[in-house]
Amino acid sequence: MSLLVVGLSHRTAPVSVLERAALAPEGRGKLLQDTVSAEPAAEAAVLSTCNRIELYADVDKFHAGVAELSTLLAQHSGVALDELTPYLYVHYEDRAVHHLLSVACGLDSMVVGEGQILGQIKDSLALAQEQHTAGRLLNDLFQQALRVGKRAHSETGIDRAGQSLVTFGLEQLAGPGAAGEAAVAEWAAGRRALVIGAGSMSSLAAATLARAGIAELAIANRTVERAERLAQILTEAGGPGAEHGLTARAVPVAEAEAELATADVVVSCTGATGLVLTAEAVGRAAAGRTTPLALLDLAMPRDIDAAVHRIEGAHLVDIESLADASADAPMANDVDKVRGIVSEEVAAFGAAQRAAHITPTVVALRTMAADVVAAELARLDGRLPDMDDRQRSEVTQTVRRVVDKLLHAPTVRVKQLASEPGGAGYADALRELFDLDPQTVAAVSRADTRNPGSGHD
């Protein structure tokens, strides 16, 4: 079996296609189940964010796997396969590993170095585990991706190579030359803001605005209680808005349009499948203003009508305009350091997987040796029935030590050799030399797949 990823992202597809292809949270589990039900795939995980949709699978046939995964993405996204295909990319084996580790480090993000993708990868793994579609390969891969992403952020300055999507978007609203939290704070101080949504991205936007020194904040959310909790966190002692004397309140999402009349800044990121703010609503709020109404749309599909770009008195920054702006975002030497980390970790992952491939054969060999020892000791008991317990124990331990010492060096060495490129053939050699039962090896492999967190010494 081999790792395959088929997907599309902001790098390959226009926002209009990404919007239509976006997977609703409730549909991701069904996609995973349909993937593992397909003939070429044994494991599956889906990574779906505002600017990427990727389906990972362990497949036994490359071309059949690509065809099946592409078809499944089309079926579940609602975009016709012939329309979706030009935007799809395919990565296989080591390239697929390299891709996910790069994604985890923020190298493939719209804003280089953003850390939110780690939470999304964690959620993807959790869903695959919940749906029982992640076996040893994808468990190992996604857990390694999380570790590598954290390593990149702790060992390099990749966080400085780019900003979070929220901060970058606010910088675009603040105007040309605005860079960093200080510039955002200078622009936002004393303004009134409306944040629509109370999820992780909206909460981050609210906290960023609170730290920047906005005077008033309205949080509109479908569940008002959740918005109320966020408002309390932002304004309580020690909260990001406390030192500026921020006033924050929660309102039902149905009142978001009415809040536009008094807002200077609007940030929206909900899971809605339709528009939250229409061009007509924004047009009414923007009419007669002395300063433009600033709107940041971080949702996918979009929350704010794209026609707002044409409204006088409104300044809209959305995912599409962020993609255009981020092409000129400054890069740092830290990016090269992260690329080095990714290459190193890809090699380590490959070596670990190759070594793991031989483990069932080694376990089967040791199991066979243990069975031989047990049979010979039983035969010895029959031939020397007068041995006392002390003698029998001494003989048993001696025989087992001899067998363990004979097997130790070759099994350690074969694991080392198997971890090197081209080392997969050593498992076949062991099975042939010791005439191991293929069913025993397969049983160990199945046990490893059912218990991906287990291991063998």
Describe this structure in words.
By secondary structure, the chain is an alpha/beta fold. It folds into three domains: 2-161, Beta Polymerase, domain 2; 165-326, Rossmann fold (3-Layer(aba) Sandwich); 340-450, no CATH class. 56% of the residues lie in helices and 13% in strands. It is built from 19 helices and ten strands. It has helices at 15-21, 25-37, 62-77, 81-84, 94-104, 116-130, 136-155, 158-161, 165-174, 181-188, 200-212, 224-235, 256-259, 279-286, 319-326, 333-383, 389-418, 425-433, 438-450; strands at residues 2-9, 41-49, 52-59, 89-92, 192-196, 216-221, 247-252, 265-268, 293-297, 314-318. It has a six-stranded parallel sheet with strand order 7-6-5-8-9-10, sandwiched between helices. Strands 2-3-1-4 form a four-stranded antiparallel sheet. α2 runs antiparallel to α3 (62-77), α5 (94-104) packs across α7 (136-155) and α6 packs antiparallel against α7.
Question: Can you give keywords for this protein?
Answer:
Beta Polymerase, domain 2, single chain, Rossmann fold, 3 domains, 13% strand, 457 residues, alpha/beta
**What is the radius of gyration?**
29 Å
Total number of distinct structural domains: 3
Find the CATH topology of the largest domain: Rossmann fold
Uncertain segments: 453-457
Class from helix and strand fractions: alpha/beta
Summed up:
By secondary structure, this protein is α/β, with parallel strands linked by helices. The protein has 3 domains: 2-161, Glutamyl-tRNA reductase, N-terminal domain (Beta Polymerase, domain 2); 165-326, NAD(P)-binding Rossmann-like Domain (Rossmann fold); 340-450, no CATH class. 56% of the residues lie in helices and 13% in strands.
